[in-house]
Structure formats: structure tokens, C-alpha cells
Amino acid sequence: MASFCSFHMIHVLLIFSSCLLIPTSSQSHPQQPPNHVAFFIFGDSLLDPGNNNYINTTTEDQANFRPYGETFFKYPTGRFSDGRLIPDFIAEYAKLPLIPPYLQPGNHQFTYGANFASGGAGALDEINQGLVVNLNTQLRYFKKVEKHLRQKLGDEESKKLLLEAVYLISIGGNDYISPLFRNYSVFQIYSHRQYLDMVMGNLTVVIQEIYQKGGRKFGFVNMGPLGCLPAMKAIKLQQGGAGECMEEATVLVKLHNRVLPEVLQKLESKLKGFKYSIFDFYTTAKERMDNPSKYGFREAKIACCGSGPYRGLYSCGGMRGTKEYELCSNVSEYMFFDSFHPTDRVYQQLAELVWSGTHNVIKPYNLKQLFGHSQEEIPCDQFEHLPYTSNVP
Fold first, then answer.
1. Residue 208, number of CB atoms within 10 A of its CB
2. Considering the entire predicted model, what is its pTM?
3. Could you give the CA distance from residue 175 to residue 125 in angstroms, rounded to a whole number?
4. Active site includes 11?
5. How far is it, in rounded angstroms, from Cα 52 to Cα 76?
6. Looking at the predicted structure, is the pLDDT value of residue 362 above 50?
7. Identified catalytic residue from 36, 256, 341, 373
């Protein structure tokens, strides 16, 4: 494995005539669709609608084969689910079309947003290097979209679109799972806190770069109970455990979830107009795993699709080295579709909480508030010269 050494709300912004940004050719540029807020998505397989269909990778990091996608779309889309993901539901609630994969050929309509997420991606470039679209590359794609929007809409309209947009980010799970899953020695080199600081450092830089391009409203999904995924419990069982959760993963998850709010609070104090939301994926998922019947599930430990203990062997679809796999008869009764990922029904329940949940699951805002949130007018000089800081926690 490569060295892990140094790694490096908005209401319509009022552009008064006194802001001399333009009189130029605003008439010659097509206007963005009225009365909508764009939606930009960054992250990993929890949010990937199929970007990995279009890169040179392995089936380990793809889901473009059956039985993926069959519950809702009736065919595999590349989503790591039997159906939809959280961004699909959020787009519906925000009255937007489904946001397609950025890499999908012919996808040039970015006025509604773009989805850059890639299954297997980490905040660190070294995670699944060369096989996924890492977070820094997702940022580069976003900058290409920003340039495209300026060319299409003109400077004024594109800045307005980016300032009003909502940016959803879910990243970190692969950074913590990969070293444990593949038995790397990274945690013999770095303490948990040192490693976490590298993850958070990369994430912070990306947030600030998006802010520099106009991003102001950010939604974050914290780490779920990674140590209790069917795949991780199966590994623990093979290591001689009694089928319990993998404790080291849980330690990393809890550290991440404690530090993430601290990082975002620091950014809020430094970046004018920065607003954020953190969804408590850990608590909401753990509640469903511990009390499945309360939420309409029969099975929350065993995956619907896979093989081995807990169906934790990542064999769903028979395309990942192991051809034989089991598939449940009623996916709606299951919390996990495959060894790592929830079902469409779980994603819908979580998306409803992300959209309109109360402070016990998402704070300080939910995404419904971010999509409609008003913000103080940004003075003209700040609109032209968006502040940027490079501090890393």
C-alpha cells in the first residue's frame, strides 16, 4: 500500500444594480431553470448512482449487474442497492430530477447539479488507488462543472446557482474499512488519531475548495456502524470471534463522529456564510439493527444477497470472484442488501430523516431547511472575491 505520509443557506443572493459585476451579455446566456436549488453530491458507494460504470475498475467496486437495482429500476444502474440511494430521494423531495452520474456519457445538464460519488472512494488518494474516483478527483470534476456553468449561464447566473446550491458529502468509510478489511499495517504506523487527522485534513481542503467556488450549504453523513456490517462481522467470526462487531472499526467510527462536528464548527467560524448539517447515520442505522421490527424489518444482521456467515462474503451477483451466492426472497424485510450496503427501503427511511428530521438525528439544520434557507446578503466585494483559508484541523 502506498505511503500515507503527508496529504496534503441560501436564499437567492441579491445582485443589486450597484454591484458592478456585469452589464455584459447576461441576455445572451440561457437562464437556469427557475425556482430550484441545485444539488451536488460527493462521496462513496452510499451516494454513487453509477459513476464506476464508466471507469476502468474491477467488479469489487461496481454494481452494474443483477440483482442490483431490481427493486425499483428493474435493472442494474450501478447503485450499490436493490433500488435507490439517499440522493435519489432527496432530489425527489427537492423537486429535482434524479441527478445522474457525472461520468455518464452525454451528461451535460448540470444546472440541476451533479453527482461525483464513486463506490470504494476515500478521502485519501491511496484508498483503492487507480480503481475509483477519489475525493480529490471528484473535486477536479466539480471545478470542470463550475467552468461549464460559467460558459453556459454567464458569470452572474453561475455564481448565483453555486451559492444557492446544496452540497452533500459522505466520505470516510473506505478510509477506515480498507486497512482493516485488507489487513494493511497502516495502524501499526499511525495512531488512530493521526490517521483520522489525515482523513479530516483532506476533507477540509476539499470543503474549502468548494467554498471558494461558491458553495455555502453543506450536508454531511457521519460514519455508520461499520464494525457491525455483515462483512465485518463475518471477518470477526473467521478470526475466532463470536460473531460480534469488529471493535477497531467501531473505535474509528466513534472518533470520526466526535471530530467531524469540531472540524465543521471551526470552518463555520472562519468561512462567512458557511452552513452545514450533520446526519447521525450511526445512531439511526444502529437503532434499526438493534430493533428491526420497530422499523418494519425482519432481518438486520444477515444480508439479503451474498454468501457465507451473515451472507457477509461480498459475492452478490456472482461477479466478484465467487460465482455462487444466496438471494433472499423478500428484500423489503432486510436491512442490508449486500455485505456492506443497505436496501432501498432503508435508504428511503434515512433520506426522510436527512430531509426533514429533527435535531436528535440531524443538526443544526436538516436538508429541507438548507434547500430553502435564507442567508444574509453577501456584500458585492465578497461575492467577487470569495474568501479562502487553508487551515487543516
1. 20
2. 0.87
3. 9
4. no
5. 12
6. yes
7. 341
Tell me, yes or no, if 45 is annotated catalytic: yes
Q: Encode pLDDT of 279-335 as tens digits.
A: 999 999 999 999 999 999 999 999 999 999 999 999 999 999 999 999 999 999 999
Query: CA-to-CA distance for 87 and 340, rounded, in angstroms?
Result: 18
In angstroms, the CA 96 to CA 161 distance is 14
Residue with cell 423537486: 95
Cell numbers 450549504 correspond to: 217
Q: What's the grid cell of residue 137?
A: 478527483
Catalytic position from the list 197, 338, 344, 373: 338
Question: How far is Cα 67 from Cα 61, in angstroms, rounded to an integer?
Answer: 15
* For helices 135-153 and 192-212, angle between their N-to-C axes, nearest 10 degrees: 10
State the average pLDDT over residues 237-241.
Answer: 86
Question: Of 45, 118, 158, 170, which one is the catalytic site residue?
Answer: 45
Is 118 marked active-site?
Answer: no
Nearest to 173 by CA among 140, 128, 211: 128
- Residue 31 C-alpha cell reads as 437562464
Q: Which three cell numbers stand for residue 136?
A: 480529490
Residue 366 phi/psi, 5° resolution?
-100, 170
Pairing relationship of beta strands 305-306 and 275-279 according to DSSP bridges: unpaired
Band of the pLDDT at 35, cuts 50, 70, 90? confident
Sequence-distant (6+) residues with CB within 8 A of 234 are 308, 309, 310, 312, 313, 339
Q: Between these two residues, 387 and 75, which has the higher pLDDT value?
A: 75
